[in-house]
Amino acid sequence: MALPALQEAGIAPELLSHPSARVTERQFAMLYRALAVRCDDEMPRLFSRPLRPGALKFTCLSLLEARNLYTAMHRWSIFHRLLHEDFRLDVRREGSRAVVALAEPASRPPNKPMALELMLKLVHGVASWLIDRRIQLLGVDFSFAPPPWAAEYDILYPGPVSYGMGRTALHMDASYMDQPIRRTRSELPDFLRRAPEDWLFVPFKEARLEHRLREYAAGQLPQSITGEDAAQALHLSVRTLHRRLAAEGTSLQSVKDQLRRDLAIQRLTGSQDAIAAIAAQLGFDGPASFHRAFKAWTGSTPGMYRITPPLRR
């Protein structure tokens, strides 16, 4: 089951043995859809009871006629109880905050971290879609310890992330709950057709310096940037630039490396450009130095990402 799904998504199966390997958002979404079809489960075998195809559609239909987001989330909590018992969807206001929690019964084994992550992203993505606004998060709680991929949460869940909490939950400003539902039934088919992109990769406009720096560095390629260049472009002193990046748990070099890694993977999987051309586009002085850097970033060679030709749909 897994091998055909990987091939359909354009992912070389050998990458599964490399902990540092990466896939694009498009590849992940294609893999997710392929597994959902093969498993007959919209949350591919992540919970004790499958969510049969159509569960998301009829959930959303039950929410579209709600007066505001709070009413929609309350309806979802009721609808969810009809689907499975792995957790309870709990929606409440706590002062100036609104909290949407996945409360797990103590009598059941804990859910897998990835199951809770994806369900939380589904709640966040659907809620943002319903009110046609990107809901900015004040914080995220997870009931489990930090997983090996916890660093990725800075992108998936902008805002403070806490682990080992009594519940898995999203925190947002309570005013979002008063927002009216702006989507209509006619818009639902497009939303479902693009699933899971539209709920998994909800875009943000964060104030994190790391993301501003990454956007600036991308615009300068193939030239590299220095700390002086970046500081001037971002209207900071060099010292402040490095201090704030350190406070965010990163550095100038890490941001540049991660940017070039991600762009390399996108171009290797999404284009037929020669590896030498990609190396030049990313500012490397030749294919050899690109190969060395890529192997250090991902644990594999650039050619491994070319084993399955990019799909064109």
Structural summary, described in words:
It holds the Pfam family HTH_18. This is AraC family transcriptional regulator. The longest helix has 19 residues, at 113-131. The chain has a domain at 52-200. It has helices spanning 2-8, 25-39, 55-64, 69-81, 113-131, 153-156, 188-193, 197-200, 209-220, 227-233, 238-247, 252-270, 275-281, 287-298, and strands spanning 88-94, 97-103, 137-141, 161-162, 168-173. The chain is an alpha+beta fold. Helix 1 packs antiparallel against helix 2 (25-39), helix 3 runs antiparallel to helix 4 (69-81) and helix 9 packs across helix 12 (252-270). Strands 1-2-5-3-4 form a five-stranded mixed beta sheet. It contains 14 helices and five strands. The two termini are 22 Å apart. It is globular. Helix 6 (153-156) links the parallel strand 3 (137-141) and strand 4.
